[in-house]
Amino acid sequence: MKRVNELFDVKEDFKIISLHSDSRYVGKDSVFFCIEGLTTDGHRYADDAVFQGAKVIVHSKPLKRKYPGVLYIQVKDVLDELNRVANIFYDYPSYKMTVIGITGTSGKTVVALTIRDVLNHYLKMGYIGTNDAQYGSTVIQSSYTTPETIFLHRTLNEMVKSDVKGVTIEVSSHGLALKRVDSIDFDIAVFTNIHEEHLDFHGTMENLMRAKMKLFELVNEKGFVILNADEVRFNHFLAQNAKIKAHRLTYGIDHKADIMAKNVRVFIDHTEFDLFIKDEVYHVNVPLLGRFNVSNTLATLTVLMALEMPIEQIVSAIDYISPVDGRMELLETHTPFHVIVDFCQYVHAYGQVFRFAKSVIKPNSRIIAIIGVPSKKEINKRNRIAKIANKYCDQVILTQEDDRDDNMLDSCEAMQDLLKETVSVIVTDRRVAIYQAIEMACNEDLILILGKGHEQFMKSSVGNQPYPGDKYIALKAVEEIFGGGKEDEI
Ligand SMILES: CC(=O)N[C@H]1[C@@H](OP(=O)(O)OP(=O)(O)OC[C@H]2O[C@@H](n3ccc(=O)[nH]c3=O)[C@H](O)[C@@H]2O)O[C@H](CO)[C@@H](O)[C@@H]1O[C@H](C)C(=O)N[C@@H](C)C(=O)N[C@H](CCC(=O)O)C(=O)O
Questions:
Q1: What is the pTM of this model?
Q2: For domain 93-320, is the CATH number 3.40.50.2300?
Q3: N or C: which end of the chain has fewer CB within 10 A?
């Protein structure tokens, strides 16, 4: 709780219990911020907010009605004001902990969770990212990868009260463009990679890069920005456009960097490489799969370097790295064939996973891919995934990936028409598709279950529907068909 004159430059003095930007959740004695959105305008809900108990309305446009006893504060930019006020209301939580932001198209979750897991061995850590916030045994669901400002500050404040000393935050381009993290004091910002994504929202690659660039400008002058030397286009863009206050460190495989990996060798269950760090070389073995996860590992190690860990400690911290749920996760099936579950959200990720699969399977073994078919709205994505699947997959099972508005069978058939160089079948029920793959797999085949990763829900137009998850279903199928599944995991 705060007094209103602690939050705003006003002479009135009454208590404020909470902050809100959605009128549907406004509580008594609160502040409501009217935000102009993409579909509606928060100014339309100012009266609703007052009805629900708001005592202060922060707005930028003129309002039709004003009620006595309510303080109306007009500002130029409501999101800027929201950031300023949320910081004060929650006692500047990000200044009381080490805040590490991770941005990039892919790898945000793997890097954020890996840094969290490794650092947890030294200090109490929290994580905010793909649909939840976690610290200790607390898990708070959120609707976004990067939650909105009030949620962020409230959660960071709870973490501080629970003695959390550091936090990793996944920072999406939406989050940056919509000013969700503008008032967070970042100590370290990490860049993974950039590919075409969310151009429906950003419009152009330049706008997308500009949105991501902002994170690096938000890092304080004592902090570090950690860049991927192999992402030449983004680094060039930063050099031309960014005003960065912080120190820089780089990691890379193909381009010279502060921390480098060479002689990368990928295996079905781990990856090995030579780690070049401050003139020393160490042979390293990590349980993360694929060349792209070498970059993610390097990003993690560079964060440890920024935190001034001695080299020996950085190298031994590699032992704390473990696979991330639903991200290139090799299931323990004890079957003669292998099963990998991956989230695989973007087209380039399909290419990476298929190339990895091709490089690790035996010459006469098959890649059997279960692919969730993109909807009618994403025809371009559908075409591009089909093209890559034609090149690498031996068999494809086309199935659902969330319940979309269009007809599932039509979408599957349209995609099947594109799969001319590989054998495919349509099984619209995702559970049946997984069972079918496991029934047909033989020695050393590799089943790839793609598109849902860790998710235990199916999105639908009426909200999320329960779904046990790809891993659960696959292990259950193995147990039922082969009797060899690990019961404690299913
Ligand atoms: C594109 C985008 O991010 N849109 C966000 C944006 O929506 P919007 O501009 O359409 O908002 P709006 O519905 O017009 O509402 C405007 C304001 O009126 C308020 N309102 C609205 C209705 C009402 O009855 N009362 C009320 O007060 C809203 O709370 C809001 O403050 O502002 C809304 C409220 O803040 C967000 O809920 C909404 O997120 C949408 C739902 C969303 O799905 N966002 C996704 C794309 C997103 O953010 N994804 C990223 C990236 C994920 C990734 O990397 O893949 C993420 O970080 O999760």
A1: 0.94
A2: no
A3: N
